[in-house]
TrEMBL record:
Name of the molecule in the record: Selenocysteine-specific elongation factor
GO terms under cellular component: cytoplasm
Main location: cytoplasm
Cell compartments where the protein resides: Cytoplasm
PROSITE patterns per UniProt: G_TR_2
GO molecular-function term, one example from the UniProt record: RNA binding
Key words, A-Z: Cytoplasm, Elongation factor, GTP-binding, Nucleotide-binding, Protein biosynthesis
Tr-type G domain mapped to chain residues: 1-168
CDD domains: SelB
One of the protein's GO biological processes: selenocysteine incorporation
UniProt keyword Nucleotide-binding present: yes
InterPro entries according to UniProt: Beta-barrel_SelB, EF-Tu_GTPase, P-loop_NTPase, SelB_WHD4, T_Tr_GTP-bd_dom, Transl_B-barrel_sf, Transl_elong_SelB, WH-like_DNA-bd_sf
């Protein structure tokens, strides 16, 4: 299916043209029939020569209903631009053209209607002059009479060519259905309609209604009046919803799959058609079928920050337009560059941001986004509309830019060197302190940094990071050497608390010696050589099994103060076993 919107001044024959092409009545409301003009969106469809269905969104032309018109044009890629031969170019013709140009619509057909009432050539020349400097320049032209039917065959041929030339969206695109109508049907419940530009919807699919975030499911689907188990975009579709009442959904809401779209109320954009410094501070932004009041903050010569009064599900590359309802003008179109822009809090931040935005593309580039942001959750990157770059480093649910990972590793080495010089007796920099110092939002990213080649000498022990082997300060090293000398001759005669104090070895110094591998802690206040356990097992193996504490103490040449905790340590390490009668044996 293909979808085309009408555009043009009020009462120039848009609805008449649709009736001529489809045989259907696009005007839905009694008031529209009574007044003879379209005040809301109408829909009709036909089949073109290759068998494809072509749906029309008939939009109102009257200035009072331009917002309704924008709701219909927003999601549609092509236009049937209508100008009456007997009136020529009119005010709403210009406003509709401004909107289409701002949205970047490039495909369509110019139709000169009422060609039986006046020579169509002057109106055609006038229209082409207006289109010349816009995205719709050079449209093919057809002259038609809705009364006599003259030119209808030519118009159908032009529509055939238009349909065959429209680009096809990717089949795996994430769907986003902007709601343009909502109503109830007895026995079915809430129904919404909209133009699905890409992706697919299916019966029983779970969706989210944004911006509210309400979870709903698809009870049924209709495409051009026919029930369907699934619908692929582009298409006009009606969705029967479970999980929501009519008063909970409105035009401008969007149906999307869960966790695949970001809702945002601040975006950075590139403007088309106007200098941002010349815009009103408050305008209405139109995107899809939504219309939201927004505050405009100029950044550069063609970039601005838009702060929306309400959040919308937007992606990088979305096209929207800014409209001034008071002046009945569309002063600018906007291309979304960033849906998660940084805060502009510091002096000069706006100027710096303008320079950054000069390098942004008009489409979502996963590699560029990761390079700019340095790290991002993979789900968020996808929700922005970008794909995961091939070189990204994974850290749990995060993606990390390789170049920034390497820069962080170098920064970490400097942190560790500084910390170890200032606090030589500590076990290293706490991992949480390192994470905060590197401004990382998650510990998983710190783990990824530690895998960098430059961080090969960084070790992690008991929640602390250390660079290289532990190094003891000279006074501590000398005191520990004296203890080691004593233990070499009497391995199990641990120094007393008094002796340790006299040597200047407190708890911090002793803990540092244990981390450095110079001593082994057997129990509180009991320190031996690092190989004390193996030496003990070798000596105890000479005793008959089982053996008593007293026998062990005598064999080891030590006191009860050392023998008791040493045997307990051997039991915890499953080197010995204490029997029910209080004796011990080697395992």
């Amino acid at each position: 299916m293909r979808v085309v919107a009408t555009a043009g001044h009020v009462d120039h024959g848009k609805s008449t043209l649709i009736r001529l092409l489809t045989g259907m009545e696009p005007d839905r409301w009694t008031e529209e029939h009574r007044r003879g003009l379209t005040i809301d969106l109408g829909f009709a469809w036909t089949t073109v020569s290759d068998g494809q269905q072509l749906a029309f969104v008939d939009v109102p032309g009257h200035e009072r209903f331009v917002a309704n018109m924008l709701a219909g044009v927003g999601p549609v890629p092509a236009v049937l631009f209508v100008v009456a031969a007997d009136e020529g170019w009119m005010p709403q013709s210009g406003e509709h053209l401004e909107a289409l140009h701002a949205l970047g619509v490039r495909h369509g057909v110019l139709v000169i209607t009422r060609s039986d009432l006046a020579d169509p050539e002057p109106a055609a020349r006038q229209a082409h002059e207006q289109l010349a400097e816009t995205s719709l320049a050079g449209l093919p032209t057809v002259c038609v009479s809705g009364t006599t039917g003259e030119g209808a065959a030519d118009l159908r041929r032009s529509l055939d060519e238009l349909v065959s030339g429209l680009p096809r969206p990717p089949h795996d695109a994430d769907p986003r259905l902007w709601v343009d109508r909502a109503f109830t049907i007895r026995g079915a419940g809430t129904v919404v309609t909209g133009t699905l530009p890409a992706g697919s919807l299916a019966v029983d699919q779970h969706l989210v209604l944004l911006p509210g975030g309400q979870e709903v499911s698809v009870r049924g689907l209709q495409c051009l009046g026919t029930e369907a188990p699934h619908v692929d975009g582009p298409a006009r579709v009606a969705v029967n919803l479970r999980g929501t009442d009519l008063d909970e959904v409105r035009r401008g809401d969007a149906l999307v799959p869960p966790r695949q779209w970001l809702c945002t109320d601040v975006v950075d954009v590139r403007l088309r058609g106007s200098d941002p410094r010349e815009l009103s501070a408050r305008l209405t932004m139109h995107v899809g079928s939504a219309a939201v009041v927004t505050r405009v903050r100029p950044l550069g010569t063609d970039t601005a920050r838009l702060s929306l009064d309400g959040p919308l599900p937007l992606r990088i590359g979305d096209r929207c337009l800014l409209r001034d309802p008071g002046s009945h003008r569309v002063p600018a179109g906007a291309l979304v560059l960033d849906v998660r822009p940084p805060a502009l809090a510091r002096r000069g931040a706006g100027r710096r941001r303008a320079v950054e935005l000069e390098e942004f593309d008009d489409h979502a580039d996963g590699a560029a986004e990761l390079r700019r942001r340095r790290w991002i959750r993979s789900e968020e990157l996808r929700a922005m509309g970008a794909t995961e770059p091939s070189g990204a480093l994974r850290a749990g649910s995060w993606l990390l830019d390789p170049a920034h990972r390497d820069a962080l590793a170098k920064q970490l080495l400097g942190l560790l060197n500084d910390y170890q010089e200032r606090y030589p007796l500590e076990g290293g920099l706490p991992t949480e302190s390192a994470r905060q110092a590197l401004s990382l939002p998650d510990a998983a990213l710190l783990t990824a940094v530690l895998r960098a080649p430059d961080a090969a000498d960084v070790s992690v022990h008991e929640g602390r990071l250390r660079l290289g082997a532990p190094r003891l300060p000279e006074p501590v090293r000398e005191a520990v050497a004296e203890i080691r000398d004593r233990l070499e001759s009497a391995p199990f005669q641990a120094p007393t608390a008094t002796e340790l104090t006299e040597l200047g070895l407190g708890s911090r110094q002793l803990a540092a010696a244990v981390r450095a591998g110079e001593l082994s802690k057997i129990d509180q206040g009991v320190f031996l050589l690092p190989d004390a356990v193996e030496q003990a097992v070798a000596r105890l193996a000479e005793l008959p099994s089982p053996f008593t504490l007293s026998q062990a103490r005598q064999t080891l040449g030590t006191t009860r103060r050392v023998a008791v905790p040493l045997l307990e340590l051997l039991a915890r390490r499953h080197r010995t076993e204490r029997l029910a009668d209080g004796t011990h044996r080697l395992r």
